Amino acid sequence: MEYFADTLFDLPPTGSFDWKPTFSPKEVKKELRPYQFDSSVAVERAFQEVDKTLLILPTGTGKTIIFAHLIDKWWKENRYQSLVLAHRGELIDQAAKKIRAQSGIIPGIEKADKFTYIDIPVVIASVQTMTGKRMKKYPPDTFKRIIVDEAHHAIAPSYRTILNYFQGAKVLGVTATPDRTDSRELGSYFESIAYQYLLTDAIKDGWLVPIVGRRVQDFSIDLSELRTAIGDFLESELEQVIEKYITPICTSIRKETEGLKTMIFLPSVKSSELVAHVLRSMGFNAAFLSGASSDYERSNVLDKFKEGKITHLCNCNLFLEGFDEPSIEAIVMARPTLSRTVYAQAIGRGTRIYPGKKQLTLIEFTYNYEKHQLVNVYEIFAGRGYEQKVRETAERKSVGKRDINFLAELEEAHRDTYDIDRIMKRVRVADPHGFVAFDPFAICDLHGIDLSGEFNIKWQGKKLTGDATPNQIKLLKRYDIQGADILSKAQAAIMIDMIAKNNWKLPINI
Known about the structure:
510 residues, Rossmann fold, 7-stranded parallel β-sheet, 7-stranded mixed β-sheet, 19 helices, globular
């Protein structure tokens, strides 16, 4: 029996099993964008060489559409069953809708009181549910393909329990730009990056809107005494600090977001409720939602937000993943963070294209954070020529500006930092006496080699793990390449290989 939409009435009756479709009739099959098609081909190619690969695309570029297309292809061509792992209900529901729309296949769901059969094309499972007895009803060889949605969670023990049980499956992890704290461990599990589409490219290609920032500088929020845990601020302490600034924060939100559909990220449920209350007192149609909100309340508020009857929606961590409302015009980042993943996910709620929407307005606040390196919007543009010193230059030059087009500022900073013609002449060794001292990322960027990927990468088909060796660092420094000690072993090997192929000469003063 085929489990497609046109055979719906032939399916087993509903009961404790999750066969009853709850999909919106508005969900229709979408043609793949060029990068989506290229990424699906790249995944297939990667699976010819490795068992575990990553697909990295920014929020809003359709990662779910891509793996829905692949799931359909795997089933129809090879009868491969697929398992999709997610940790939030929104991600499970979103995946189910997209898979059904793209393929006509009605996925089975394993989540809490929802059950499904073991012989259907696609199972979408809550990780929390699947780690228990529910997993054991599936023989270990059931699934030929596993998709880990929001793959930066794949290093968690709960995920690894499931992945280790279904050892024979090829694993595809999909994620937006991962945080540095995740990268080394992700690189220890995934064997390659099949495809990466940068935020920079998505904006330039017109698939995401430009991000224009407004930094509130009327006051500074003091974070200097806060402690951290698991790579970010302690929420209880952060909440206490932010609550001291509720009134000036709301005053700034009123000033900067008048007439814009706005989502506001805050450090706690309590601060979200307070900000919504103060904004209502200022005349805005504001609301807040939390994990404790009932399904009815949540559905009612989101419908009103979508329709524009609610203009300002406050939350803590609720909408970092799995929420798709392209009409959002402004993001207020009133939750300082040390996590690039958290920051990128929050900003990604507002970058989707929408009729009449020309940009995403990002509202940031100034902070006193002497002990910590806060993530800001420039961080999520890391890669391909926008390395740290370029990002720092762009940030420094944008201080005091009213509306900051972040990508334009980065491009200007890149031009200021590098004289491309001069460096290209040096790279080609027009001067027989040597090579200009330069950092490794910029040198490789000029040769079309991207060293900015933060995972262990392959070199000549081999996976080299760990930091660059002393001998590698010594050799690269002999060529006046500064900063070689920050490279991984694989990155250093790529650079040395590039030097050999281009016949670079040693500086005369060695």
